[in-house]
Every structure is written in structure tokens, then in C-alpha cells.
Amino acid sequence: MRLDRFLSETSPLTRSLAKRALKNGEVTLNGEPIKQSATQIDTDNDVVVLNGERLALVGVRYIMLHKPVDVECNARRGLYQRAIDLIDLPKADRLQPVGRLDVDTTGLLLLTDDGQWSHRVTSPRHRCAKVYIAELAEPMEGAAAEWAIGQVADGLMLDGEETPTQPATLRLLSPTQAELTITEGRYHLVKRMFAALGNHVNSLHRSSIGDLALDANLAPGEWRELTADEVALF
User: Fold this and answer.
1) Which family is annotated (predicted)?
2) 26 and 136 co-located in one domain
């Protein structure tokens, strides 16, 4: 790998700033000052130091975040704080959310810089189940609750859609709290499904994706890296 590219991969420097740092004598290679940006290095064995700090390539990362409200999943800065702004890791801007959560939805959000792994989680072909807990505006009880459970299991026709939703599972935890398990990812799907049932979602929380549940020890805004066994679930 070229030295200037290595510097841009392992530090906050852009390629142009990396070249400037080299010219200014801020970089050593195996203990010797070096100024040639095109120098080829062995990323496994050579020692590159920038201003006294040894640099190393960042490998792929797999992150579980307990997403709070008023945090968005976009890469660009907008009206709200971004999910990646909560991740205190080098080159965190390379992390991409695995799927999306609305800005007012809380719960399990995965982030990674492994595109193939992300695709396995989100691809419709894999029908990865996602579980949401919804707080509802109107209670669902008795015959109305049974009707709603059946409608969700059969598939709902949503406004503006030409095909019904995939069969899903609705379980009532209380008259105004429902657990919904879905296997597809249409725009605002959970909220639209409850709207099709004549109800309104006051708040929404994602508790699990596939066999991976949100770590109960993570408070809103906290994160941790996935274990190897958790990564292997997908």
C-alpha cells in the first residue's frame, strides 16, 4: 500500500494532508523519517508513526447501538445527531447503519463497515425477522384484537401499495402495547400497518433482529462491539 494512502486510512488525514505531513517530517517508517508519499509499505510488518503515534489499519467493525430518540441514521449531517456520532471509534464515519430506524424510533441498530455482512442482514431473500414493541394510542382488546392479529397474519394492504404485507406476527402485551414481528422493510412499515388497523403508534422500539437481541445492559445512546458468535448469527 502507498504510504500516503495508509496515512489517510489510519488517521484523520486526507491524502493531501498526509502528503503535507510527510513533507513536514511528521512521519517515520521503521524508525526513519520519510517524505516520499508513493513509498510502498508492508501493512502487516512495517511500523509507521505519525507525530509519535503508531498507526494501524482499522479492520471491519460490527457495532450494536441502543439508538435513542432524536438520532438519525443518515450519513450526512441534518437536523438531528447522527448514529455514527455516538460511536467513539477511529474512522467511525466509515460505519454504515444496517437498515434504518426512524428518528423517533428507539432500540437495536447495527452498524458495520462490512458491506457483505450488512447485505446478509437486510436482504429480503433472507427474511430476517425484526421485532418491534409499539405503544399504541388506542387499546386493542377482545374481538378487535383477535381481528387485528388475524389481519396481520394474513397480510395487510397499505395505502399506496400494490401488494399486501408479508405475513407477520402480532402479540398483545397489554391493551396498548403490542409486539410485532416482521420480515420485510418497507418505508415506515410498522406505523403504516397499525394505521391500516385503525390505530396510531405513539412510540416504537426495536428489540431484536434475527436471533440477536438488544443488550439489556446498554442504556439509550450506548454501544458495544458484537462478539464473534453474534456476528456469526447472520
Assistant:
1) Belongs to the pseudouridine synthase RsuA family.
2) no
The span from the CA of 51 to the CA of 73, in Å, is: 34
| Number of other residues whose CB lies within 10 A of the CB of residue 129 | 14
**Looking at the structure, do residues 44 and 75 belong to the same domain, yes or no?**
no
Instruction: Give me 52's grid cell.
Output: 509519535
For residue 226 the three cell numbers come to 458484537
The region, left, alpha or beta by phi > 0 then psi within -120 to 50, assigned to residue 142 is left
What pLDDT tens digit does each residue of the chain (234 aa) get?
999 999 988 888 889 999 999 999 999 999 999 999 999 999 989 999 999 999 988 789 999 999 999 999 988 888 899 999 999 998 898 899 999 999 999 999 999 999 999 999 999 888 999 999 999 999 999 999 999 999 999 999 999 899 999 999 999 999 999 999 999 989 999 999 999 999 999 999 999 999 999 999 999 999 999 999 999 999
Amino acid sitting at position 187: Y
User: Alpha helices of the chain — where are they, by DSSP H?
Assistant: 3-10, 15-23, 115-122, 142-154, 189-196, 228-231
Query: Pseudo-torsion of CA 70, 209, 153, 190, nearest 10°?
Result: 10
Output the nine-digit C-alpha cell for 106: 428507539
Burial of residue 165 (number of CB atoms within 10 Å: 0-12, 13-18, 19+): buried
Known catalytic membership, residue 211: no
- pTM, 2 dp: 0.84
Q: How many domains does the chain have?
A: 2
28, 34 Cβ separation under 8 angstroms:
yes
Indicate whether 47 and 69 sit together in one domain: no
